[in-house]
Amino acid sequence: MKPLHCAAVDLGATSGRVIVGTWASNRLTLTEVHRFPNAFQSLGSHDYWNLPGLWSEVQTGLAKAIAQFPKLASVGVDTWGVDYALVNDAGRLVFPAHAYRDARTQPGLTRLANTRAALARIYAATGIANVFYNSSLQLAETVANCPAIEDLATRCLFLPDFFNFLLSGRMENELTMASTSQLIDVHSTDWSRPTLDHFRIPAQWFSQPVLPGTKLGKVKGLPALKDVQVIVAPGHDTAAAYDAMPADPNGGDLFLSSGTWSLVGFESSMPVLGPDAMAARISNERSSNGQYRPLTNVIGLWLLERTLQESAARPRNDREWAALIAAAEKLPAPAVLLDVADPAFSNPPSMRVAIDGQLKKKRTAPPKNLAGYTRLICASLGRGHADAMRAFERLAHREFKRILIVGGGS
Predict the structure, then answer these.
(1) Is residue 261 very low, low, confident or very high in pLDDT (cuts 50, 70, 90)?
(2) Which of 46, 58, 81, 208 has the smallest number of CB atoms closer than 10 Å to its CB?
């Protein structure tokens, strides 16, 4: 069998990359052909993604891929969860793409949290926890405050869907990504009409979600890639990461996808539902085969990323990273850990101030240096992961024998 070369466009919240996977002699080899930074940008009081900039980087990466691998067979795209593009029939953007950390959802989040009956109904219908970044809250805010959008937009494409459209010319919603929205029926693979109605989101913006593996056709508009097939990948990067891990078929594995967020969960043929699961903020996202990935979000390396941004001692290369990690490892375990579920860490102006504020409430002095903050953050995340595992063991009535970790970046 000839070597098979497939390109993966992997867009994360703080960096993106184009990687070519080569399957030959029963072995998969990965070649990173392009890497670039990513960040949301603030304009006034709101936060946005630079979609034209990301598309430019994607094109650059794919040009490098086809130059290095002229027989490139396919391309697939994954991104972080929940965010979307509102477009018209021609695929033209009709509304700016907000970043999920934008504070515009906070009133809706509070309103839903204070309406227990509605909150319980939505959780029972979708199996997704009430969290500030949910697409449901984002779209509800847009429709409520910009009602003319219903006359302009005809489709809601989540970000992997949007980049798939730019590549192929076809508009489809992919299941794993759609399941992050709090709008998919937990008992089917279609949209929850009662939930769409609750948030006053037009149902016609969405199409029946397709499964990963769906062929969208050849790349259009990029002549060098005219023979490359666009294939729907697991659109949510966490779904892609979970799919890549060698799972125990007997269900004894706990998964940890570590990046900007730490997503702790497992694979299941059934969702984890009920009042206790809702209280524990369990989200039943979907796997590539339409089954379930019950998981919970721990704030993740966002804590460290934002802390490093404020430090003049931020590592700039592998040697400096190794030195920081070694210095942190030499420190004693912190006597008091951070509550990593604190919403104050979502998108503060200063992460260090937010950390110091929580420590002050616990009557504990803040770390003295960057190594101290690194030690505190990593130990606190470890406790958050352990707490999530114990909650799953209790709620799902299972014992985990292995922890599989993938990621480590953002």
Answers:
(1) confident
(2) 208
